[in-house]
Every structure is written in C-alpha cells, then in structure tokens.
Amino acid sequence: MLTSVVSLFSFLHILWQASGLVSVPFAGESVVIPGLLVWIALVYALLGTGLAFWLGRALPRLNFMQQRREADFRFSLMRLRENADSVAQYRGEATENARFNQRLEAALENFWTLVKKQKLIMDYSTFYLRSATVIPMFIMAPQFFAGAFPLGRLTQISVAFGEVHSAIAYLVEVFPELSAWKSVIDRLIGFQERLDKVEVKSNVVVGQQPKGLQIKDLDIWLPNGRRLLNSFNLSLEPGDSLLISAPSGYGKSTLIRTVTGLWPHARGCASYDRERALTLSQKPYLPLGSLREALWYPNQPDRDADAALRLHMQHVGLQHLSEQLDDELDWSQILSVGEQQRCAFVRALLARPAVLFLDESSSALDAANEARCYQLLKQTLPETILISVGHNASLERLHWQVLELQSEAQWVHRKVMQPV
C-alpha cells in the first residue's frame, strides 16, 4: 500500500506534464484537455476495480466455507481419536470412514470451486494490468507519428501511465488476499455477533457466605419453558450431606449447574463459600501434563504435600500410579473412567473445599469403591458440605439427607435415619 502511494505521487506529475494539452474533437469542435492520460488512468482503474470486485464477489464466501469445512473435517478426526475405543467396540469403522469421506469431499468440492474463481481473478488481473501499457500508446500514437515528440517521450508516457494506473488499481492486484482477509473478518464478526446475542436470563443471585449453604425461592426451567423446580428452599450446615435423586430428565444436574451459576434459566438466591467450592463431574477433566498436575487441578502442585497425595491415592485404590506422578501422558485416554473418577476424589481431598458438588461422580465405581470414597471424604473433610447427584440406591445410605425431584416441578426433602 505504501509503495503504491509513493508511486502515485512520484509519477502523477510526470504523466500530467508528459500528456500536455491534447485536442479531442467533440461536436465539430476541438476540445483541449490538460493531462488527458491522468484522467484516462483514473477512469480505467475505477472501471477495472469495479469489474474485479464483481467477478470476485463470491471469493469471500468461498474462503469462509473452505475454512469452515476444513475445520469440520479436522474436528471429526479429533472426535474419532477421543472416542476410538467406543467406535471400535461398535465396529463403526465403515460408518466413520463414510462420514470422513463425505466431509472431505465437501471440502474438496468447495476448494476446486475456489481455485477456479481465483484463477479467473488472476487471469483478469494479468490481462487488465498488461493492457495498461498499451492504452497510452494508442492515444498518443497520432501525435508521435505526426512528429510532435520523439520516441523517448512516448516511452516515458507509457511507463508513467503504467505506474499511475498500477498505483490506483492496487486493489485489483491484491484482491485474492483481500477476499481471504474478509472471510476471516466475517468469521470473527459473526462470532462476536453471536456473543452479543447471548442473553443472560438468569436472575439467580449467587452470594458469598463463609459457612453453610442457603437456597431461597429458587425456580428453574428449561429453554422451552418447562418448569423443573418451583419455590425451592434449602439450608445446609457444615458437614451435612445431601443426595439429589430423581429419574432422568427431572433436573438433578441442572440444579447443580444453577447453584454454581452455570444455568441461565432460573431465578432465586443461593449463597455459600464460592471461593472454596468444587464440582466433580461424571467425566472428570484431566488436563494435558503430568498426573501430579492433573490430581492438583485447578490448583498448582504442592510438593510439600506429596505424602498426603500418595496416601489419598492409596486409600482410593490408585497406589499403582504413585510412581508415575511426573509422567506427562494423555491420562484421559490411558485411565479407565473408574480410575478417572477416583482421581477426581483425590483432587477433592487435596483441595479441601467448603462445598463439594458431586454430579454422578461415582457412576463408574462399584458399590464398595463408591462407599470407600464417600467415607474417605467424610473422614478427611468433616466440615465439607457434600451435595451428590446419582441414581444408585446405595448412595442414599451414604448421605444424611435426600432431595427427591418429582414431576410438575415438585420436590420432597427428607432425612436419612441411619446414614453410614
């Protein structure tokens, strides 16, 4: 861009002077036009730029679709890698291969359309820029053959015209790059517009209190408007344990997400020590890195607490991994789901939260390991409030209280007579 601006100002004066006064016959009279070639270069550049934009109007969309289809193809490969074991057990190789071929063919089809369109633009750009050197010669040829100026001046005019025209028609030269940039900008603008359209509909006030957990007048509903809970109230003291039980689809996990501030379709109040709260999900997240970093996540590893870490691993049955704490592997692919869930329990024991939400975090454990992990939580974290979500009947005897979610947004809160 800077080179084009410098060339324009450098050669514009030369072209204006070299053009001189040109007489053009018009309506039976001769009209004298100063700097005729400058005006011709300007008009020719504007017309050529407009035609280039018209011919390449589909390029931004094609670039956008190419990026999208390539991203879809890469994401499908990543999904297969993450779920390779399940695909193999389903014997779904042929289905996955067909889906990959379908996505690859879509990307290739768009790619060849994009290449053809880019070739058209490049051919047009080459012809357009080359023709600019011929135009001044045709216009000034009569004066040259009449002996008005020597050949050197004609060459000077041709070079100056080409430089001025090239500077003005800069957009034609860089149109393919501009279309690629525009596709990227369109994606970013679309992403930002989607973010701007996200409406935070939650009216749940999640407050901070040092001890206990309070929920007042909590209403929860689905995006389609169906109610899950009406006027829900709950009060838990340090050391209490609550099991949320209900059939699938009644909003057990949604209640946890609402209390932790992740569900927007709700209103009411919830207060607890948010800074010392932790949630264990059904599929624990194990970040890339060493096993030690995964067990301490989201906190940084504390090597002074190594003895406690190894003791917790032994208590949950992961002592066979204690010598691999510093191995950097893809632990989410190496460990079974049950082992990953026990890693999450170790994470909770290390974090020592004030409130611990367990969203079906023991679903892959047998009854004995499940009971051992819960008893370990109660013994090691006697002041921690435990709120669990689960289907297993064995979970009820591990909690002091049970919350049963029922149809039509109703609920029943009761105490367990003899918890373990």
UniProtKB/TrEMBL annotation:
Query: Which GO cellular component terms are attached?
Result: plasma membrane
User: Which Gene Ontology terms cover its molecular function?
Assistant: ABC-type transporter activity; ATP binding; ATP hydrolysis activity; peptide transmembrane transporter activity
GO biological-process terms attached to the record: peptide transport
Task: Spell out where the chain crosses the membrane.
Answer: 36-59, 127-149
Question: Which SUPFAM superfamilies does the UniProt record give?
Answer: ABC transporter transmembrane region (SSF90123), P-loop containing nucleoside triphosphate hydrolases (SSF52540)
Which InterPro entries does this UniProt record tie to the protein?
ABC1_TM_dom, ABC1_TM_sf, ABC_transporter-like_ATP-bd, ABC_transporter_sub-D, P-loop_NTPase, SbmA_BacA
- Localization annotation: Cell membrane
Q: Which UniProt keywords apply?
A: ATP-binding, Membrane, Nucleotide-binding, Transmembrane, Transmembrane helix, Transport
Domain ABC transporter, first and last residues per copy: 213-419
**Topologically, how does it sit relative to the membrane?**
Multi-pass membrane protein
Where does the ABC transmembrane type-1 domain start and stop, copy by copy?
Answer: 1-180
Which PANTHER family does UniProt cross-reference here? ATP-BINDING CASSETTE, SUB-FAMILY D MEMBER, LYSOSOMAL COBALAMIN TRANSPORTER ABCD4
Task: Tell me what this protein is called.
Answer: Vitamin B12 transport ATP-binding protein BacA
